[in-house]
């Protein structure tokens, strides 16, 4: 019985690649230094999988930046602006595409399906020339082989590559990207020929777009591509790997009828229908790579349950055709539990990071083959049982309260326009009120204070004094700038989710549980392991302290339940919505405590609400329903006179605008810096929007300081479609990553612009 791993994290157990990349980019180390770190990482990963007994070990899943960008390099599809002149693509051109350089901006980056990983979007058009320009896949195959490991080289499949790309600048929007299939396949053929010549006997094509809603034309492209590649592929075992959801029935039919393909990889964790599809018809003689071990989470697998799934599959596809695998690449989970020395042993026994998942896959394969490691399975069963029964996981009171929310609705009693009137009577704000999104620059000094407090190097008293001073500076600055609704600046927060997770019960934190987000950037999501409750107020002290420093309204600042959920590793023993409702109840308490403490404006950030949208349209409504409901729960019982704001980090919500309205916030501030047009078109099309709205008037992601005129211009554009009395003026996100030398002039100009337009109304 065989085992397989779809892909493995590249960063290294201690983010070695991150540091090597950043040092190279800063000119502090050479290309050879970087290559050495990368070579060592690859070698240790291959060795680890080989030692664990994995039969099908992937290669070319390493990347210096991104696997889609690697494919762009392989195809020589370098956009013209990088002035690449041919030959093998080196670091210069590669990193210029990824990060831009002094003269040319980077290529666009976007989310990889519903993960928190971001890939570099290929820019293609009718004039793109494709040539074989990066031999990385073949080189890595040979490198592993020289180490004695015969790997399965992995390529991003040709159809997914095209479906994930966009028309280059100057190319018409509707350009049929799939028409480039015949231009890229010759390069794929060259790569395949070289891999064969180097001794490869398997090849893996990642075609995750197969889990999306695809029309007949796109499906036809899959058939066409793999038919066209058939002779090139002959003599190879060909695995088409899908992940992140099940493959829809129609696509499943197309996929499983491809004669050049000999093996199919399916995500059996998120792909809830796949099992049924396989049962209802799987082609004879083909391999099934069964992704039973979850690559998207950090939980130890329930081995007994996986084993029984595998056994039922074995009965259908045959003993020698079933391969145990991961649900997707392990790059979406943390690297190695061994490095977690601070987690207690009980929680640790419930977890498995990438390194542990490799062992799980192998153990399952061996068990299927009749070599079950009884002790290992018994330890796993004991851990599963302890997780089920641990009082740390279950809080009956919370469960009862969360269950009671289901099926019923929660909204504020009064409608938004009446509430806004009541609030205005109290707040007495000018038209086009100005505000900011929450955070102010986080200086080196501030980070040091937090670090030292955490390490107990300074006392609580010293810490509080330092943070109070910082708040007081931020409050004074905002008063000087004449901003209308103030914030405290969030100096006590390292991260908008971690800060709350640390104070809620049911959360655990890792020391090294990093997951690649893009390039060298990694995130360390909290782990939600138990029922969530809020033992104590989390922000009331800081918000009331800040409010006491000014007579202007001070916004309380919270992270919303959906964002906390979407940016954490969540429980797999209950539905996501249930966890979300629990967090909503905890945040509700905080909202009510803030109100009781005299805070009149409370912002509940839902930066990541859109990120949680399921991959398939049919599932959107259900998600949006519970996500929006969770948000409403947090503030359903507060007074009309308390103003609830929310903030979102994207403006492309044309498709979910009705859900946004349904959140029923009094004011929403949103990112809008890169396209006024897209956002405004929603309102131009006649969507009725009665709540306050603050589309960001300048881009905080750039150090550039906008002048008064351009900000005024943008405000005027918005006034053309939105009522004067609902428009707010604010930057498009928090100011945490900016410097004061940028923030002060930018906000000065923002306030001037608002004042200028007020005089013209
Ligand atoms: N209130 C947060 C801040 O200002 C919001 C951050 C975000 O939207 N990502 O930093
Ligand atoms: Zn934001």
From TrEMBL:
The keyword Methyltransferase applies. Its EC number is 2.1.1.14. Zn(2+) 1 binds at residues 647, 649, 671, 733. Its cofactor is Zn(2+). Keywords: Amino-acid biosynthesis, Metal-binding, Methionine biosynthesis, Methyltransferase, Transferase, Zinc. Belongs to the vitamin-B12 independent methionine synthase family. This is 5-methyltetrahydropteroyltriglutamate--homocysteine S-methyltransferase. It comes from Urochloa decumbens. The lineage of its organism: Eukaryota, Viridiplantae, Streptophyta, Embryophyta, Tracheophyta.
């Amino acid at each position: 019985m065989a085992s397989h791993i779809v892909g493995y994290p590249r960063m290294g157990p201690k983010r070695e690649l991150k540091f090597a990349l950043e040092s190279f980019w800063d000119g502090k180390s050479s290309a050879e230094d970087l290559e050495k770190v990368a070579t060592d990482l690859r070698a240790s990963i291959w060795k680890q999988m080989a030692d664990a007994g994995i039969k099908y070990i992937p290669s070319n899943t390493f990347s210096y930046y991104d696997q889609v960008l690697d494919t762009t390099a392989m195809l020589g599809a370098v956009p013209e602006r990088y002035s690449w002149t041919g030959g093998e693509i080196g670091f210069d051109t590669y990193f210029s595409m990824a990060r831009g350089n002094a003269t040319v901006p980077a290529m666009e980056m976007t989310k990889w399906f519903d993960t928190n990983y971001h890939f570099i979007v290929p820019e293609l058009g009718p004039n793109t020339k494709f040539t074989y320009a990066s031999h990385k896949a073949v080189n890595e195959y040979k490198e592993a082989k020289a180490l004695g490991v015969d790997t399965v080289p992995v390529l991003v499949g040709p159809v997914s590559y095209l479906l994930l790309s966009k028309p280059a600048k100057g190319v018409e929007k509707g350009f049929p990207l799939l028409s480039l299939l015949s231009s890229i396949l010759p390069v794929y053929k060259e790569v395949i020929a070289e891999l064969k010549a180097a001794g490869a006997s398997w090849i893996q094509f990642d075609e995750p777009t197969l889990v999306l809603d695809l029309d007949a034309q796109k499906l036809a492209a899959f058939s066409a591509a793999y038919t066209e590649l058939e002779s090139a592929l002959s003599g190879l075992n060909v695995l088409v790997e899908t992940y992140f959801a099940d493959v829809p029935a129609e696509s499943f039919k197309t996929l499983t009828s491809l004669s050049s393909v000999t093996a199919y990889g399916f995500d059996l964790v998120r792909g809830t229908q796949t099992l049924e599809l396989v049962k209802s018809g799987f082609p004879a003689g083909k391999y099934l790579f069964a992704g039973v071990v979850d690559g998207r989470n950090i939980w130890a697998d329930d081995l007994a349950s996986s084993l029984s799934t595998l056994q039922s599959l074995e009965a259908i596809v045959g003993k020698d055709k079933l391969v145990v695998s991961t649900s997707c690449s392990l790059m979406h989970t943390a690297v190695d539990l061994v490095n977690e020395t601070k987690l207690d042993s009980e929680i640790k026994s419930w977890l498995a990071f990438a390194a542990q998942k490799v062992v799980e896959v192998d153990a399952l394969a061996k068990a299927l083959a009749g070599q079950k490691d009884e002790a290992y399975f018994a330890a796993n069963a004991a851990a599963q049982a302890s997780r089920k029964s641990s009082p740390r996981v279950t809080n009956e009171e919370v469960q009862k309260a969360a269950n009671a929310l289901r099926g019923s609705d929660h909204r504020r009693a009064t409608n938004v326009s009446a509430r806004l009137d009541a609030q205005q009577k109290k707040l007495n704000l000018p038209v086009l009120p100005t505000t900011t999104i929450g955070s102010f620059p986080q200086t080196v000094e501030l980070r040091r204070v937090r670090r030292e407090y955490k390490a107990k190097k300074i006392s609580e008293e010293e810490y509080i004094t330092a943070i109070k001073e910082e708040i007081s500076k931020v409050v004074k600055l905002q008063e000087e700038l004449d901003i209308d609704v103030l914030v405290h600046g969030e100096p006590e927060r390292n991260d908008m989710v971690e800060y709350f997770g640390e104070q809620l019960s049911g959360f655990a934190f890792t020391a090294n549980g990093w997951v690649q987000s893009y390039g060298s950037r990694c995130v360390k999501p909290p782990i939600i392991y138990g029922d969530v409750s809020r033992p104590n107020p989390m922000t009331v002290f800081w918000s009331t302290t800040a409010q006491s420093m000014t007579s202007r309204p001070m916004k309380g600042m919270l992270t919303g339940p959906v964002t906390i959920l979407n940016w954490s590793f969540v429980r797999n023993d209950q539905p996501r919505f249930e966890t979300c409702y629990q967090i909503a109840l905890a945040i509700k308490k905080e909202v009510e405590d803030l109100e009781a403490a005299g805070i009149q404006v409370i912002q509940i950030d839902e930066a990541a609400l859109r990120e949680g949208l399921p991959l398939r349209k049919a599932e959107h409504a259900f998600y949006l329903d519970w996500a929006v409901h969770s948000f409403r729960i947090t503030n359903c019982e507060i007074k009309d006179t308390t103003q609830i704001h929310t903030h979102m980090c994207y403006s492309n919500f044309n498709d979910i605008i009705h859900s946004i309205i349904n959140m029923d916030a009094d004011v929403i501030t949103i990112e809008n810096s890169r396209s006024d047009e897209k956002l405004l078109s929603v309102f131009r099309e006649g969507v009725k929007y009665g709540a306050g709205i603050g589309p960001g008037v300048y881009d905080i992601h750039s150090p550039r300081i906008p002048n008064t005129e351009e900000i005024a211009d943008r405000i005027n554009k918005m006034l053309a479609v939105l009522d004067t009395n609902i428009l707010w003026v604010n930057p498009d996100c928090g100011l945490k990553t900016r410097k004061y030398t940028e923030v002060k002039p930018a906000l000065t100009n923002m306030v001037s612009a608002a004042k200028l337009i007020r005089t013209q109304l």
